[in-house]
Amino acid sequence: MAVLSVVFCIALLIILISWAKLNAFISFLIVSVIAGFLLKLPLTGIVGAIQKGMGDTLGSLVGIIVLGAMLGKLVAESGAAQQIASVMMQLFGPKNIQWGLVCTGFIIGIPLFYSVGFVLMIPLIFSVVYRYKIPAVYIGLPMLASLSVAHGFLPPHPSPAALVNQFNANMGLTLIYGLVIAVPTIIVAGPIFSKTLKSIQNEPLKAFVKEEKNERSLPGKANSFLTSLLPVFLLVLTITLSFRLDPNGIPVQITTFIGEPISVMLISVFVATFSLGVGQGRSISQVMQIYEGAVKDVAMIILIIAGAGALKQILTESGVSKEIADSLQYLSLPSLVLAWLIAAIIRVCIGSATIAGLTTASMVAPLIVQQHVNPNLMVLSIGAGSLMFSHVNDPGFWMFKEYFNLSLKDTLRSWSLMETIVSFSGLFGVLLLDSFL
Q1: What is the pTM of this model?
Q2: Do residues 70 and 291 make contact, with C-beta atoms less than 8 angstroms apart?
Q3: What angle do CA 178, 179, 184 make, to 5 degrees?
Q4: Rounded distance, CA 313 to CA 93, Å?
Q5: How many domains does the structure of the chain reveal?
Q6: Which residue among 139, 190, 368, 433 has the highest number of C-beta atoms inside a 10 angstrom radius?
Q7: Alpha helix stretches (DSSP H) within 39-61
Q8: What is the annotated localization of this protein (predicted)?
C-alpha cells in the first residue's frame, strides 16, 4: 500500500507540473504534504519533515550553486566565453570547425548553466553557418550536445551537485569519472550522429544573431581559460594530491579543506572577481551587480531542489524509501541501470532533467548502502537517465526548434534523438567504468 501511495504521488507530481502547469516548487510542496498524509506521518511531523528536508538538502548545496552561477555569469559578461570560442575556432580552423565548436561547448559548458551557454553560443554557431555555408543543425547540434552533457553529468551544475550531496559522493571523483564518460558520449551524440542530419536544410533566424564584443575589450586568452576552468583544476589537483600525501599530516588537511566544493567555488569566484572583473576595468560594485543577477537566475532552481529535498525527507521518515529499495533490489536489473531507467521515465513524463534526477535520488538512495553501489557512478547514471528523449514538455526542445527555425518533425529527429543517444551512451559509459572499479 505504501509503495502504491508513492507511485500515486509521483504521478500527481507529473500531472501538476506537466498538465496543470503549476510551478515545480509549489508542486513538490503539495505532493510532499499529500505523501505525508498517505504514508500516515503525524500531522506535526509532516511540516517538520518538509523543513528538515529542505534545510538538509540546501545546507551544503546552496553555496555551491550560487557561487557557480556567479562564476558563470561573470565568464559570460566579461567576454571570457567569447574569447574561448575565438581561440578554439582559430585552433581548429575551417576544416575541423565542427570539432572546434564541440570543444568550445564542452569547455564553456563546465562553468555556465545550460540555458546561459545555449543563448551565448547561438551567435557563434550562426556566424559559422553564414560564413561557411554549412547546414545549421549539422554544425550546431554537436556543440549543444557538449552543453547538455556538461549540464547532466558534471558538478557544479545543480543536478549533479545535488545528487553528490544526497549520496554522500565525492565531488572531485564524480567530476573525474564524469569527464571520462562525457568525452566519448559527446563524440557519439555530436560529430558522429550529426553526419546523419546533413539533409536538414533550414535557414536559422538572423534575429537571434547578436553582435559580438570587440576583441580588444575581451580578457586575455590564458586568463579566460584558466579562470573559467579553475574549479575543475582545483578539484582534480586536490583529489590527486590526497592520494599522495600522508593522511595524518597537516598538508593533507589543507588539501582537503581547499578541495571541499564550497572552498573550490569560493576561491574560483574570488580569483574571477579580480581576473575577469576588476582586472578588466570593472569596479567592485559592478562585479557585485553581475553576481546579484546570477543569484536571480538560479533562484528557482534552488527552490526546486529544496522542494525535492522535502519529498525525499517525507519518504525517508515514513520508512517507505527503504521499503521501495528493498523491493527494487529483488529486480533482475542492476542498481545503476534501475536508477537510470527511473530517471529516464520521469524525465520523459516531466521534461525537466533536474527534477527527474532529484526525484529518482529520493527513491534509490538506500540501494547505495544495501547493494554497495559506487555513489559517484550512481550520480552519473541518474544524470544520464535524466537527459533521455527531450520532447515537447521540455523548454530546451522549443529553444532549439525556434532558434534553428525547424519543423516539429526535424526537431524530434535531431534534438530529441541526440538527447536519447547522450542518455544511452552515458549509461554504457557508467557500466563500463563500473566494471573496472
Answers
A1: 0.80
A2: yes
A3: 105
A4: 52
A5: 1
A6: 190
A7: 43-59
A8: Cell membrane
End-to-end CA distance of the chain: 38
Q: What grid cell was written down for 399?
A: 529553444
One pLDDT digit (tens) per residue for the chain, 437 residues: 677 888 898 889 888 987 888 888 999 899 999 999 998 899 888 999 999 989 987 887 788 888 988 998 898 889 888 888 888 888 888 789 899 989 998 998 888 877 778 877 787 788 788 777 888 999 999 999 999 999 899 987 888 989 998 899 999 999 999 999 999 999 999 999 999 998 887 776 665 555 666 777 789 999 999 999 898 888 888 888 877 777 778 888 888 898 888 898 899 999 999 999 999 999 999 999 999 998 988 888 888 888 888 888 888 888 876 777 667 666 778 999 999 998 998 888 777 888 888 888 888 888 888 888 999 999 999 999 999 998 877 878 888 887 888 888 899 999 999 999 999 999 999 999 999 98
Torsion, Cα 303 308 314 319, to 10 degrees, reads -160
Tell me which residue of 124, 123, 31, 116 sits closest to 76, measured CA to CA.
116
What the block records as the C-alpha cell of 153 is: 553529468
The domain of 379 spans: 2-436
Q: Taking a C-beta distance cutoff of 8 angstroms, is the pair 272, 243 a contact?
A: no
